[in-house]
Amino acid sequence: MYFVMAAFLAVWFVLVGGRGVALIRQGTAVTVVLGAAALVLPAIGVWFLWMNTRFVTRANRLAGELEAEGGLPVDELRRTPDGRIDRDSADEVFARRRAETEAAPDDWRCWFRLAVAYRDARDTPRARKAMQRAIALHDKRPAAP
């Protein structure tokens, strides 16, 4: 689904960029300004799409490596009758993952599992930050605190 949406966005970027160029070719002050604005939006979109694709690719690479080691977190979460994750169960698992990460703050595996726990607890921004830290530690780059 991700690649379908990425392809859709790429087509949209091309279409909007084409309109921007056409507006600039009109040559009036208003159309040049609108055309330039129409070119800025796809440029921002391409950057955003590139950064997200890179993040997803790296996170999947870590998941594959962790799976090969047998270290992927086991799904031990209770679910509601409609299949949603029970909040108390997610909080319990999160507390264990946080303690594990505090005990080994330089282990990318712990940060990966913490990111999964954050996601299960519906805290997407922190899940993303934890995954970015796992990626940085894995790649031996300086990680943001």
UniProtKB/TrEMBL annotation:
Gene3D superfamilies: Tetratricopeptide repeat domain. The chain crosses the membrane at residues 32-51. The keyword Transmembrane applies. InterPro entries: TPR-like_helical_dom_sf. Keywords: Membrane, Transmembrane, Transmembrane helix. This is Tetratricopeptide repeat protein.
